[in-house]
Amino acid sequence: MSRLDTPRDARLDGTADGELGPSAVSPKAMASGRSSPSADVAVRIVGTLALVGVAATVWLGLFVTPNAVDYADGTVRLLYIHPPLAWVMYVAYGMATLSSLLYLWPRTRHARFDRLAGASAEVGVVFTGLTLVTGSIWGRTTWGVWWTWDPLLTTTALLFVLYLGYLALRNVPGDDETVARRSAIAGLIAFLDVPIVFFSVSWWRSLHQPPTVDLASRHLYVHGSMAWTLLLGFVSFTLTYSWLVVHRYRLAVLRAREEHEGLEVALAERWAEAVK
Amino acid sequence: MSGYIEAGYAMALGSLAIYALSLVTRERASRRRLPPAAPGEPVSGSPSAPDSSGESS
Hints:
The complex is a heterodimer. Chain A is built from nine helices and two strands; from the N terminus they run H-H-H-H-H-H-H-H-E-E-H. Chain A is mostly helical. Chain A has one domain. In chain A, helix 5 packs parallel to helix 7, helix 5 crosses helix 9 and helix 6 runs antiparallel to helix 8. Chain B has a domain of 34 residues. The longest helix of chain B has 31 residues. Chains A and B meet through helix 1, helix 3, helix 5 and helix 9 of A and helix 1 of B.
């Protein structure tokens, strides 16, 4: 009997109740274990909307919106991609943390939450890297330096390194349950830096400007076409994140299936050798 | 506009495009390596599992 034959292991494997592929976005399909055509269509629609939205954001951001008088050389145009990238970073790590909590909670423990946490964290790391790069360019054009040990920049760089460590930890060998549990705990620890990043501008004297969208006072510091383009940027990059996470999640499920089917083949071969 | 801004856009969007392409490519390669599970039959290695191939876009 393989280790996947037990209900508990099958549950950890994530294959027993069919949470694979596009069912990741469809609870009904998740329950049935079938590929859901409607989920496929939904993912395609999200992908198309993300592509169109990002293209429109770039066009509006670079060619339509006005330049701000207090920014030299059109630097303000980075506004339409830099804050949305940072926003997705928070969303991605929030999703990874929520999934980790759901995995650690005994009643909701399932491999799907471990995989979702890993997928979201990986996408989050990509967005964090891009946030740092675009922020660095903004810093070069406004402050005259590529990097400074400003609280926001430093804590964001720390966040990047923490989640790189989290992704590395996920690849440390071990049985499925151990890897998932220690990854979930590491994910929760890494998330402690997220509120520090978010509030660092308020807590410490920072070179970085205050948030363009002030959630506390519900105030937006840009108006007209600039505000709409920024809003479009937030929506487009959030859709992009969703599409990327679905595909990264599917890849994780397929990889798990490959590993387990490889194990089955190896066990069958060993069994055949034993009975000879 | 300074070239920095265009470079920032190109780097951000180019990186996202490459990452998205790598995900789709790896997903397709993984599907090709796996034997197709017959509809209604359990997946090898998980007797209670329904079709988990997750074929999609």
